[in-house]
């Protein structure tokens, strides 16, 4: 009978340890997410002073692509309103 009680006790402790480890893992993941979010916000609020030529080229391509999409969306909107 005491062996059953000891096994039950150990099983309970094992599950408690597993629960605590899971909570710690969740807290660590949340902390990493908050850190990445804070870093992203900081980079938006204080962008780098100097950009490389490749970065500038990427930004120009993105801007041009966005303008093309905007023109296409406006044309589609006008066509839809004319029907």
Task: Walk me through what this model shows.
The chain is mainly alpha-helical and 83 residues long. It has two domains: 1-47; 51-83. Helix content is 89%, strand content 0%. It has helices at 2-45, 53-82. The relative contact order is 0.04. The mean pLDDT is 82.
Summarize the SSE layout with pairings.
Blueprint: H1 2-45, H2 53-82
Give short descriptive properties of this protein.
2 helices; elongated; mainly alpha; 2 domains; 0% strand; 83 residues
Give the biggest sheet: none
**Span of the ends, CA to CA:** 83 Å
Morphology: elongated
SS elements, strand count:
0
Q: Helices and strands, in N-to-C order?
A: HH
For this entry, what is the oligomeric state of its chains? single chain
Number of domains: 2
* Count of DSSP-assigned helices: 2
Structural class: mainly alpha
Percentage beta strand: under 5%
- Which range best describes the helical content: under 10%, 10-25%, 25-40%, 40-55%, 55-70% or over 70%? over 70%
Unreliable stretches (pLDDT < 50, length at least 5) are none
> What's the rounded overall pLDDT mean?
82
- What is the radius of gyration computed over CA atoms, rounded to a whole number of angstroms? 28 Å
In short:
This protein is mainly alpha-helical and 83 residues long. It is built from two helices and no strands. It is elongated, with a radius of gyration of 28 Å.
